[in-house]
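Reopening: structure tokens for the zinc ion complex, inputs below.
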Amino acid sequence: MTESSTHPVPLTVHVPLDAGRAYDILIGRELIETAGAQMAALGARRAAIVTDENVAALYGDRLRESLERAGLGSGVVTVAPGEGSKSYAGYAQVCDGLLALKVERGDLVVALGGGVVGDLAGFAAATLRRGVRFVQVPTSLLAQVDSSVGGKTGINAPLGKNLIGAFHQPRLVLADTAALDTLSEREMRAGYAEVAKYGLIADAGFFDWCESNWRGIFSGGPEREEAVAACCRAKAAVVTRDEREDGERALLNLGHTFGHALERLTGYDSARLVHGEGVAIGTALAFRFSARLGLCPGQDAGRVANHLALAGLPTRLQAVPGGCGDADALLDAMAQDKKVRDGALTFILARGIGQSFIAPGIDRAEVRAFLQGELAADPRP
Ligand SMILES: NC(=O)c1ccc[n+]([C@@H]2O[C@H](COP(=O)([O-])OP(=O)(O)OC[C@H]3O[C@@H](n4cnc5c(N)ncnc54)[C@H](O)[C@@H]3O)[C@@H](O)[C@H]2O)c1
Ligand SMILES: O=C(O)C(=O)C[C@@H](O)[C@H](O)[C@H](O)COP(=O)(O)O
Ligand SMILES: [Zn+2]
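Re-run output (same inputs, fresh job):
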């Protein structure tokens, strides 16, 4: 039996960028087994895998063997798991590791892991020898539905999230949905915050579907592939229209102005808060803030928070372990957001579920009063 006949045909989402930068996202079970053949088809002869210790132990050998079967030589650079690796030190470690492997411009850098590895390896690939091709093999739900697509790469600075980075599109994305079988429940939930986001931005029907089908995504039913494909299609469409976030791509930041501030205030400590949890709290806040401003029905804000809470996600500032500081600390952190224009905050707000919009020039005093109310409120969803 040939390799390809042992597995069902994967779903494909195409990202039709111009200037030779179009690529495919393949979604299906056991894609790591055939990854080598896919990468050989890109014309590469060698690949350098960047991964973290958890993912290396689970899938590192499988990927290397697949590369070997396809005639590709490979080396590995392994970082510590968690957001702490998306740092200046983590970036130096990956670049030095890739240089020690003598990675050339014709080689491939392969990000095998979650969004941390994808962002970090992608940024190293964008800058190493001024640009090496890279492939995403996302192994977390969050990475499969969001971070592996669209070319945002980078690291965190002590003063803010993802403040150092580059746009560098992958040449191929291989989302092996069977890999999610080993993901922890907490990380599955965190990724689910970004899944729900795609419904909340512009697709109320998809949010309805999520409310009925989220358990199938977690348990590995066909809903998992459907959800990954739906999110990738939605993201690919936005990225194709606005690759460098001159306009509508900012919508993908729903929940992130608050969420990124929380990640900075918790010191990028994955034990306290992971990205998806920050996004969940930030999304619930964005909807409640929209309701407070009279833009969105309070009922919709309640529905969003209830669904996130049902899926096991935090929706309140009080849920941040160890606390997140006061309203001024949050405002100070949000002042570093990349959507700030002329010193004023831009938020992604909503007129209802599936009706998000970009709201520039939001008054700081309004945000402070909202946050003070949130910090004093009943901490239930
Ligand atoms: N570039 C983008 O467009 C974009 C989009 C969304 C998020 N992000 C970034 O992604 C990062 C978060 O990504 P994440 O949630 O994947 O976190 P992560 O990369 O830290 O992965 C989460 C944890 O799961 C483990 N893991 C990954 N795959 C596994 C598997 N199959 N089995 C068992 N364990 C596994 C990892 O070792 C890690 O401990 C953040 O830094 C965020 O800023 C980037
Ligand atoms: O791809 C995008 O654009 C996004 O905003 C997706 C987000 O989920 C992701 O967390 C992204 O890294 C945030 O981008 P940033 O520009 O706010 O750092
Ligand atoms: Zn995100």
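Residues 187-376 form a domain with the Dehydroquinate synthase-like, alpha domain fold (CATH 1.20.1090.10). The two ends are 52 Å apart (CA to CA). Marking as resolved unless the reporter disagrees.
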